[in-house]
Amino acid sequence: MSDPLVRIRGLRKSFGATRVLDGIDLDIARGEAVVVIGPSGSGKTTLLRCINVLETYDDGSIQVDGVEVGYAGPPGPRRRPRSESDLARIRADIGMVFQLFNLFPHLTALENVMLGLVKVRGLPNAEAKARAEHWLERVGLSEKLRSLPGQLSGGQQQRVGIARAVAMEPKVLLLDEITSALDPELVGEVLATVRQLASDGMTMVVVTHEMTFARDVGSRVVFMDAARVVADGTPQDVLVDPRHERLRAFLARIEMKRP
Fold first, then answer.
1. Which of 96, 224, 113, 225 is nearest to 172 (CA)?
2. Burial, 118: exposed, middle or buried (Cβ in 10 Å; 0-12, 13-18, 19+)?
3. pTM of the entire structure?
4. Is residue 206 within 8 Å of 33, Cβ to Cβ?
5. How does pLDDT run across 162-192, given as a tens digit for each residue?
6. Residue 242 near residue 251 (C-beta atoms within 8 A)
7. Residue 209 and residue 37: Cα distance in Å, rounded?
8. Rounded to an integer, what distance in angstroms lies between the CA atom of residue 57 and that of residue 38?
9. What is the CB neighbour count within 10 angstroms for residue 218?
10. Which has fewest Cβ within 10 Å: 67, 114, 149, 240?
């Protein structure tokens, strides 16, 4: 069996006296779509932000493709945080799509997607433009290339954000509650885009409250509660036949939508 693409061991993170991640162990294989669910405050978003080193972690290890993302040197008290140049290089391989779209309002959809390809990947403008056009077409926005974010719906803006992330050809894609800021009628178009990426074999970690999506798309579903991983298994095991009492109580409060 090949090594996991993402390997997390003993991950701990606190904000002041509040422990938000308490000894997380998690492996993610290449091509897996791992869906993380759980109540608000359980540590889901902080987990993603630690993987992408938008938050430093206090203890433990996060490796992406064998590289420790947050620290240099061997594990232990003497390891040192990565330099900003190291972090920029590592983050280029870890795509992230946020709850809010985080698009540059003065740039067109095409320019938003091109920016990282030119500034971070160092692609020539012509190559960056061709790759950006390809991914905007893949997410159904070929007619919106020259639209500013303010001229797009929320669902369209989120799809630009997805195109921007995947155009960088990351090793793993992190998606944090990407439908939470959308009107209900726009949720479907965004989830359809992610569903297609999953079927294409994109390695991804998805934090969501959309249980039907988790059931239909996830290779695995991870349930977090009180800063810990409480359940980790197939969608059938976690969502359909839950064994853990806390998980059953959580699911009982959420209406499973029919496809």
1. 96
2. middle
3. 0.90
4. yes
5. 999 999 999 999 999 888 877 777 788 888 8
6. yes
7. 6
8. 20
9. 23
10. 240
